[in-house]
Amino acid sequence: MKNSSTVDSYVTQMTGSDFARFIVALLFLAAVLVFSYFFTEQHSNSLFLAIAAVFGGYMAMNIGANDVANNVGPAVGSKAMTMGWAIVLAMVFEASGAFIAGGDVVSTIKKGIIDIDAFGQDTDHFLWAMMAALLAAAVWLNLATWAKAPVSTTHSIVGGVMGAGIAAAGFDIVNWGTMGKIASSWVISPVIGGVVAALFLFAIKKTIIFKDDKLAASSRWVPVYVAVMAWAFVTYLVLKGLKQVWSHLVQLLNDVFMLSLEVTSKPSFVTATMLGSFVAVLVYFVVKKRLRKRVIKLDNNRDSVNVMFTIPLIFAAALLSFAHGANDVANAIGPLAAINDAVLTGGISAKAGIPFWVMAVGALGLALGLALYGPRLINTVGSGITDLDQIRAFSIAISAAITVIIASQLGLPVSSTHIAIGGVFGVGLLREWLDKNSTLQAEIEREKAIVKDEKSQLRALYDQLRAIEKKSNRTAADSEEMLKIYKLIDQERAVIKVAKKELKKDQKNLYIKKGMIQKIITAWLITVPSAAVLSACIFFIIKNVVQ
């Protein structure tokens, strides 16, 4: 499509070179510095607040670069969307989620991991700690993005706050019970996400892919799966994406339609489920009606089934981006809002209001970071772990919503990043289990045997060569034999090179990349301690510079 190629070309130009991206990012941070300084110049600590705003903008850009890939990566990897359109969609919905549902108030201490009372009335130490936490988390995310490792932005800011808190007030300031729960999410999140994604993929295979008449099965089951997705995402969005503005929405409905609904601070699970169920029923009948017309034009194969999941997958990417923008923008603006509140009031609060300019820094930073550096992680999530098509990507997307719903009702700590990556792993492992006797697996085993046999022959040739070279009085026949062996060695090397190339090509399409699993899990395990150590160091630097 012409429009699609135009968008891709524009995005490619905008994100083309490392130097150009760096300049654009630098200009954004410079604009944040100048704007925030002059906007708050009536306050004595306006320069301090402006520098904190730069740290917040830097953190927001890194969240956009690293975390957003989990929402659109599967859609890009499955070819449901091009990279350009994925970036545009995610930018719009991430920023919309932040602005519309980001909330009016945010917790100043993320997840309650440190005791705010430990600071007493020492506002300076609190300000330095929040600045250190922001910068440390942002630097860690930047390093992870450079290494193409998707990590939890929430865990990054948690580590930052913990490290700065310890540096400011000692180890007793940390709520170690809460930290234990956060550590448990390293296992809980990917396991639940992987199991749910694998179950959905298995169900789609059993009810559609493994059937002889795939079109008839699709007509029956695709509306069901899309309706389940609609229920999951509406429930998820109401519980997570709209909780900050729920009371305002209910009050608006009461005023417009003259209702008497109870105005609560956040939606209940029952309310969210009922809204989700209502939308799911509507979606079921709409999809079923549209499929009746579309199935007639499709062939009876897996590619046609993939086509039916393309549009739902795009909707899923958009909704995930909206919910992420509404929730995770707090990782950037929470500490910034705390600093702003402390500067304006001269005190320390557990909750802080979010001025519009603070929200704008977070929302615009998210969108810009995604546009400039998002493709690195989008490619990793979409194709760097396992090969995805629309069906597999759909299973991962729906897993993200359902896992959050399950975890929130059970009170389990989860990470959206770990859920998404766990979903990708789950899909890959299911493929490995289902296809363990596949033709591709047999071909890989055959290529491994060829490489092993050729290497054995190569070693034998080298042994023959060394035996001749050890002779003290080599004859002309020996020299001729050595030339023959050299030629055979070159031939064996060429055969091994071709066999290795074919093996690598087939392994790339098979299941999951084991090396990528090790890399990502390592990054997860060291995120909190790395951010904590960085934060503590930055806190002491700030303290020594300011005092």
Describe this structure in words.
The termini are far apart. The protein contains 20 helices and 2 strands. It is mostly helical and 547 residues long. The protein has helices at residues 2-14, 18-39, 46-66, 69-77, 83-101, 123-146, 153-169, 176-209, 214-241, 246-257, 269-295, 302-308, 310-328, 330-345, 356-384, 390-410, 416-434, 439-469, 476-508, 514-546, and strands spanning 105-107, 351-353. Helix content is 79%, strand content 1%. The chain folds into 2 domains: 2-197 and 326-434 and 514-546, no CATH class; 439-506.
Q: How many DSSP H or I helices?
A: 20
Shape: globular
Domains, number = 2
Q: Sheet bearing the most strands, described?
A: 2 strands, antiparallel
Radius of gyration: 28 Å
Please count the beta strands (DSSP E, at least 2 residues each): 2
Give the fraction of residues assigned to helices: over 70%
Spans of at least 5 consecutive residues with low confidence: none
Side by side, the strands of the main sheet go 1-2
Distance between the termini: 60 Å
Mean pLDDT across all amino acids: 85
Label this structure with key terms:
547 residues; two-stranded antiparallel sheet; 79% helix; 1% strand; globular
